[in-house]
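Anyone able to model this chain together with 2-acetamido-2-deoxy-beta-D-glucopyranose?
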Amino acid sequence: MFFSALLLASSAVASVRAAYPAGVVATGTQGTTNPPAPTMPTTINQKSMARLLSVNSIDDFCLFAPPTGPSNIADTETEEVAWCTLPRNNARVIPDGVITGVSFLKTDFYVQILGHGDFTKLTVAAGDAGGELDPHGAEGTGNPVGGNVTTTVADGTDLAIAEWMLYMSADQFCLRACYNANATYSAAAMCEHKLDVMGCEFVMPGTYHEAGTFETCDADVAYPPGWYPEVSGGTTSYSVFAQYFTGVYTGGNGQPTSYTVGDTITPAAPASTPSSSNCVTKATISNGIAGSLLTADAVGTAPPDGFSSSTPLTAPTATPSGGGAASSSSVAPAASSSASGASGALTTKKSTTANAGSTPAGPKSTASASSSGGATNPTGASAAFRGARVGFSNTGEFAGIALVSLVACVAAIGLLH
Ligand SMILES: *[C@@H]1O[C@H](CO)[C@@H](O)[C@H](O)[C@H]1NC(C)=O
Ligand SMILES: *[C@@H]1O[C@H](CO)[C@@H](O)[C@H](O)[C@H]1NC(C)=O
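re: yes, here you go
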């Protein structure tokens, strides 16, 4: 019985999912600490080690943060755990008030959130400039290990996606979950995870607001992180910025070899900042769960009041503790302006040049795709592919940047011709 139900379920999923381009849907198993599938509601467990994020709406999403703390993200990237706005996925629950602003942007290729909050309440160390989390990592099993992401934004059902990235600091995060691809943009390119010192507004440009605004918008698709279009004779090609780093690789013969990868000139800005439209604002987001139930190490015995098994996935029934305004949303003027001005305040925290000695330059100062000819991967192994502290030069941890991007770019150019 159980097995045939499983088989039925998996074949139903397979037939629905066949529509997705290659590289979009996660095909492997869930991390060992995760439930087999996204689940709502689940019992409060603020000691949980589950690592399954769902990214569904402005008030139904999850983040990764340290299991104990205060800890810097970069020091704990393999062991982060899931914290969700709702009691789901056996994850820890983010108490009301922690998140102070959210821009939730839906595009044809990905869903993207930029948010503000006091993440010291999720055990991130005060002042931590942040780190980058993604499904790759040193072991190839994700940072954190066994971390997984689903979204309902693509088709209304839980879709396990292969490519995502989350930049998390003490007071800000940005998260992109990639659910589409075409011959120009692979999911891996659109969720490129190796520009880890470039910061949110470079890697995930969009129309964002200061803390205090909660907004859901449609948005145009950005160029993949680090890509710059060049139109010549009616044909578009792309140059690709590769983050600079140096390191030492010890080969099979035991001999250490130094290597250098990436561009010495760091671009000042992404190629463009996509506009948002059809924005809907909310006063705040809230799960209505009493803070006393969500203290460190709190463990419940049943889903919290207001969340029964019939609770709709994206609509908590509980009313907010402060103000009662969370459920009343208003439609903002459609089509807000492009973000070049709006994102100004976000540029200080994490924006940085990728290497000491580089000078911010115009967007076109990037590696050219043709430079990949004859190059070999200097890192050899994936051991150096760990995320790094956002905003800090952390030599040796930024490996593997240039070649994957360049190969993807060459492939894209080939397809365009
Ligand atoms: C879970 O994450 C691992 C590591 O990134 C990945 O190999 C696997 O496909 C993911 N599984 C699901 C169901 O998302
Ligand atoms: C892929 O999608 C992007 C964004 O919509 C578009 O500009 C590009 O032309 C598409 N590529 C192909 C091959 O359809």
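Residues 26-31, 135, 141-142, 148, 160 surround 2-acetamido-2-deoxy-beta-D-glucopyranose (ligand 1) (CB under 6 Å).
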